[in-house]
Amino acid sequence: MQTLTVKRSSRLSGFYRQSPERRRTRLVESRWLSPEEAESCAGLAGFDEACADAMVENVVGLHGLPLGLALNFVVNGEDRLVPMAVEEPSIIAAASYAARLCAEGGGFSVTADAPITTAQVQLLDVPSLIAAEAALRTNTAELLAEANGYLGAMCARGGGARELEVRVLDGTTLVVHLHVDTRDAMGANLVNSLAEKMAPQLAALTGGRAGLKILTNLADRRKVYVRATVPAAALAFEGFPDGEAVRDAILEGQLFAEMDPYRAVTHNKGVMNGVDAVLVACGNDWRAVEAGAHAYASRSGVYRPLTSWKKGPAGELVGLLEMPLATSTVGGAARTHPGVRRALKLARVESAVDLAGLAAAAGLATNLAALKALGTEGIQKGHMALHARRVAAEVGAEGELVEIVAERLARERIYRPERAREILAEEVRRKEAAR
Ligand code: MEV
């Protein structure tokens, strides 16, 4: 039997103007979802109080966030929809816009390290650091074998303990790192348990006393690397017809972040806008990723941007993002939260490493959109245009009237609902008169 590969496009024109119901129908028409899956997308996707009560403590209700899709993403040659759950307006629009620019240069190229999560075991009051280090090195193979003895199920899935590293913290304190391939799990519980099981043996070998046993969120063995290029001509837009000038403005913004930690933090916040929104939609531990990202940004001793934008040999804009990104597609919320399963399905996520790549591509995209807006017309114009659409919808505008009312509000720079109501009434009258 011949297997047909379904080619789907992540470019769904006019999507942003449609109603959530119509958007779900488009997802069925464009073969991203089956009709049943699309139907189950509506609302909380089956997430109820019983699910919530099984997840956390003292539940008294549910708390919702919008789930949107960033479009136009081509990742390693494949079209992808990028689910984002976020409270801040304009992030999803910004990601979709920048992804379209990157698609002009062939999309995002993503590579990633193996999914290594690292446990730390603190060893205090070590009588001789030299002897302790020697003992740990001599026994590394046995210790890794012992660790893998505790990780039977993970080893069966292709993961397991890979490396034992020793670091000296002061004259009597060591820390042992157990680097574990946790496959599609983030692996926090797994490596924390492993650290607790291994600690007595490590203490005995070093003559020290075991202190804390916990993973590190500086997941620098679990990095992701994203690259995208945008031809300079693609950067031109209304009011800014010179793409090379727009590129140069983006490069100036990059330089600012490289020279000033105050700017670098905001630059990286723009990266995390994309990364976190994907992680939240996919039920991942975004606090862990945030902590690791900012520590990684400071690794040189100075807080620096996580992305770099440069001019390529043909004058194109070349962007890179490198950051630790520990993700999971199994266990945790992926098991208990139906909305998370829906998001993973929408994104057609194949593995934790794949999810990390998608989140990072979203981060590079939101960073590009911010730099482009900041270097040209400023960030507020786009924000206010989206705000105008919201006000128009709030006062009852539907279909094409949302755009018409929003455009007039933005032109007048008045965003009050009373004015939106007046404009809507005028436009409705105009439409009726034209019939
Ligand atoms: C706002 O959420 C994010 C930005 O501040 C990022 C940036 O300044 O690069 C626009």
UniProtKB/TrEMBL annotation:
Enzyme class: oxidoreductase
InterPro entries: HMG_CoA_Rdtase, HMG_CoA_Rdtase_bac-typ, HMG_CoA_Rdtase_cat_sf, HMG_CoA_Rdtase_CS, HMG_CoA_Rdtase_NAD(P)-bd_sf, HMG_CoA_Rdtase_sub-bd_dom_sf
Domain of life: Bacteria
Gene3D superfamilies for the chain: 1.10.8.660, 3-hydroxy-3-methylglutaryl-coenzyme A Reductase, Chain A, domain 2
Metabolic or biological pathway, per its Swiss-Prot or TrEMBL entry: Metabolic intermediate metabolism; (R)-mevalonate degradation; (S)-3-hydroxy-3-methylglutaryl-CoA from (R)-mevalonate: step 1/1
GO molecular function: hydroxymethylglutaryl-CoA reductase (NADH) activity
Catalytic activity: (R)-mevalonate + 2 NAD(+) + CoA = (3S)-3-hydroxy-3-methylglutaryl-CoA + 2 NADH + 2 H(+)
One of the Pfam families matching this protein, by short name: HMG-CoA_red
Entry keywords, A to Z: NAD, Oxidoreductase
Family recorded in the similarity comment: Belongs to the HMG-CoA reductase family.
Protein's UniProt name: 3-hydroxy-3-methylglutaryl coenzyme A reductase
